[in-house]
Design a protein that fits this description.
Elements (H helix, E strand, L loop, with lengths): L4 E2 H11 L4 E5 L5 H9 L3 E4 L3 H15 L3 E5 L3 H5 L1 H9 L4 E7 L15 H5 L5 E4 L5 H13 L5 E7 H5 L1 E2 L16 H13 L3 E5 L1 H5 L3 H11 L3 E4 L13 E5 L3 H13 L2 E5 L20 E5 L13 E3 L3 H9 L12 H12 L7 H12 L5 E4 L3 H9 L8 E3 L9 H11 L5 E6 H7 L3 H7 L4 E6 L4 H9 L14 H7 L3 E5 L2 H13 L4 E6 L10
Parallel strand pairs: 2-3, 2-4, 4-5, 5-7, 6-7, 9-10, 9-12, 10-11, 12-13, 13-14, 15-16, 15-17, 17-18, 18-20, 19-20
Antiparallel strand pairs: 1-8
Helix pairs in contact: 1-2, 1-7, 3-5, 3-17, 11-13, 12-14, 15-16, 15-22
Organism: Leisingera caerulea (Phaeobacter caeruleus)
Keywords: Thiamine pyrophosphate, Transferase
Pfam families: TPP_enzyme_C (PF02775), TPP_enzyme_M (PF00205), TPP_enzyme_N (PF02776)
């Protein structure tokens, strides 16, 4: 007997084929068939406490398994609750399928309760938006997966009318073949090779696109052969181990780090922009190099429409074959005879020391010293993230994940939950400012319900530290940045986990050691003085 498929089943099966094994959200009556179809296809639906956090939990899983995120939301307020995480996925290049329920087309002509145009809302913050149709369900499903996962990755929205989800549909096996990797050729390649051969002061800037192409091995071979020191964006940290002698660490948001890195980039006679997507960089990285005086090669999956920088040669090609083609015929040699990169690396180590007795830098240093090398970290937005991204060395891609394009507060806790769900054998730690933690504290209940045990570190100074610092820098009166101190450790215990308040490195060390032995999550409230970031970021 031939099984009768619903349109929702066709969609769910295509998502399972794409590698999806988890979906997150909050159900409503309009998505019950969709949730049922996901479950029958082998995709577990997990209940979160807010759609925004549901998407970030899904992103945490994505960074572990590589499959697209599935965010499920019911119509109206449910869909709108997820707007931030969808916009974040769009700017942070995260493949995501946003599935929203909606009333049928005929119904919405005479019914207004909770009815709004979801597609118009999501269009500006997605790569594409569709309304599911039973006759074309297989086509729409394949298009959605293909668009979400092609460079640059991003979210795709599908509005699912109630009756369409239940309507009979067929899967005709329509699948778009992936595009073949390409490499440069001709005069442009010859010019690039001549620049490489002539360079004595090359530098590479590596970004998120390289991470998504899994180009780490090719980049390693290339920079080692040609002795090219490299800087990464925060997202690309760990694409090569950060203890590599050519690695100068992450960059993008720290003026203190940029004070040392940007002069080196300006001294280079050749700049190689390798999968560098400047969407996560602060304005200080706008037009850092000068194409009239420096040779610049840009390798990216999309044409430069951002105008954050320009290049003498633009290759819209895959990174690995491009580096191979560029390297052919050019032999290894020494670079930077003055030793400037090594000096800059030493300057950065001095600028971000690991020996503070306490304060935000002491918290980070102690966590890095105590937690196992294989620990996976997540970071919320705020002053602590800037400091953490300079001090937290990564030895693997995605060893530290964060919102570094949209810079969304409240992302670290749910991303840590998702990461631990997908990789329960790995230690996972999240770093949050106290304000960001308060935004999402309810998701501690989700951690308890899922039985996952990340460590949640909270920098507790009862202030929006980064904004307060900016106010003082502009000599403005303090306003809207201070709030009451709260017992974050008690919140952890209230939601079924452990909770500890610490105020010294010794207390933090003991709390971390206990947390590593526990089968429940642990909230560690690290109480620090206000102003602890002054001169440090």
């Amino acid at each position: 007997m031939t099984e009768t498929l619903r349109a929702a089943d066709v969609l769910a099966r295509r998502l399972y084929e794409a590698g999806c094994r988890h979906a997150f959200g909050m159900p409503g009556g309009e998505v019950l068939t969709l949730v049922d179809a996901l479950t029958k296809a082998g995709i577990t639906f997990h209940l979160a406490k807010h759609e925004n956090c549901a998407g970030f939990i899904g992103e945490g899983v994505h960074h572990a398994d590589g499959a697209p995120v599935i965010l499920v939301a019911t119509l109206g307020p449910g869909a709108l609750n997820g707007i931030n995480v969808v916009a974040n996925a769009h700017q942070d290049r995260v493949p995501m399928l946003v599935l929203t329920g909606c009333v049928d087309a005929a119904e919405e002509q005479s019914y207004t309760h909770q009815v709004l145009d979801h597609r118009a809302v999501f269009a500006p913050v997605t790569k594409a938006t569709f309304r599911l149709d039973a006759e074309a369900a297989d086509l729409i499903a394949d298009k959605a997966v293909a668009i979400a996962t092609e460079p640059r990755n991003g979210p795709v929205h599908i509005d699912v009318p109630i009756s369409v989800a239940d309507a009979p549909a067929r899967d005709r096996g329509i699948r778009r073949a992936p595009a073949s990797a390409t490499a440069p050729s001709g005069e442009a390649l010859a010019q690039a090779r001549s620049w490489l051969a002539a360079s004595t002061r090359p530098v590479a800037v590596i970004g998120l696109d390289a991470l998504q192409e899994n180009a780490g091995p090719a980049i390693r071979s290339f920079v080692e052969k040609h002795q090219i020191p490299f800087i990464t964006s925060y997202k690309a940290k760990g694409i090569l181990p950060e203890n590599h002698p050519l690695c100068l660490g992450g960059a993008g948001l720290s003026p203190l780090a940029d004070k040392h890195l940007l002069p080196l980039v300006r001294e280079a006679d050749l700049v190689l922009s390798i999968g560098y997507d400047p969407i996560e960089m602060r304005p200080g990285w706008r037009n850092v190099w000068e194409v009239k005086n420096q040779s610049v090669i840009d390798i990216a999956p999309e044409a430069n429409t951002h105008y954050m920088h320009q290049a003498g040669l633009n290759f819209l090609t895959a990174i690995a074959p491009t580096l191979t083609a560029l390297s052919d015929g050019t032999g290894p040699r020494g670079t930077w005879p003055t030793g400037r990169p090594a000096a800059v690396k030493a300057e950065l180590a001095d600028a971000f020391p690991q020996d503070d007795d306490w304060g935000p830098a002491g918290v980070i240093a102690e966590c890095r010293a105590v937690l196992p090398p294989e620990t996976l970290a997540t970071a919320d937005s705020g002053a602590h993230r800037i400091l953490l991204s300079q001090m937290w060395d990564c030895q693997e891609p995605r060893g530290l994940i964060q919102s570094s394009a949209l810079c969304t507060m409240g992302c670290a806790v749910p991303m840590a939950i998702g990461r631990k769900l997908a990789q329960p054998e790995r230690p996972v730690v999240s770093f949050s400012g106290d304000a960001g933690f308060l935004m999402v504290a309810g998701e501690l209940s989700t951690a308890a319900e899922l039985g996952v045990a990340p460590v949640f570190v909270v920098f507790a100074d009862a202030s929006l530290a980064l904004i307060e610092l900016k106010q003082r820098q502009r000599q403005l009166a303090s306003g809207g940045v201070d709030f009451a101190a709260h017992d974050f450790a008690a919140m952890g215990r209230a939601f079924g986990g452990n909770g500890v308040t610490v105020a010294s490195r010794a207390e933090l060390r003991a709390a971390l050691e206990d947390a590593m032995k526990s089968d429940r999550f642990t909230v560690i409230s690290a109480v620090i003085e206000r102003g602890g970031y002054d001169g440090r970021i």
